[in-house]
Design a protein that fits this description.
The protein is α/β, with parallel strands linked by helices. The chain has five helices and five strands. The longest helix has 13 residues. The chain starts with a strand and ends with a helix.
Length: 122
């Protein structure tokens, strides 16, 4: 079973991710802050990461770079989500090469479809 790690500090989004990851047929691991996520990354070895751009302890681009430095983080696809779509955030997301970007609010079905597409689940 494919593993998806999700980091989001919004409890409503957190629950949405739990449901949609399961519906996509994946095992989910959920975190509300970047440091807890990083602490578990190598142990879990995810196939996909869904990352809130604005976390209490990290900005998305900073956490992205930390993931890429990890032994198992060099090639994992990373999807960014954000509730504040600002030009500088969009530019940073495009520059670092994220696999995809979702602006909140987004369709739960779109999230499920994106997970399946990136993980090549039929």
């Amino acid at each position: 079973m494919k593993k998806v790690m999700v980091v989001d500090d919004d409890i409503v989004m957190f629950r949405l991710f739990q449901v949609q990851v399961r519906r996509a047929g994946c095992e989910g691991f959920f975190f509300q802050d970047g440091q807890s996520f990083l602490d578990q990354f190598d142990q879990i070895q995810p196939d996909l990461v869904v990352l809130d751009y604005n976390l209490p302890d990290f900005k998305g681009d900073e956490l992205y770079r930390k993931i890429r430095l990890l032994e198992n983080g060099q090639h994992v696809p990373i999807v960014f989500v954000t509730g504040t779509v600002q030009d500088d955030e969009l530019q940073a997301i495009e520059e670092i090469g994220a696999a995809a970007f979702l602006a909140k609010p987004f369709s739960p079905r779109r999230l499920q479809t994106l997970i399946k597409e990136l993980l090549q689940i039929t």
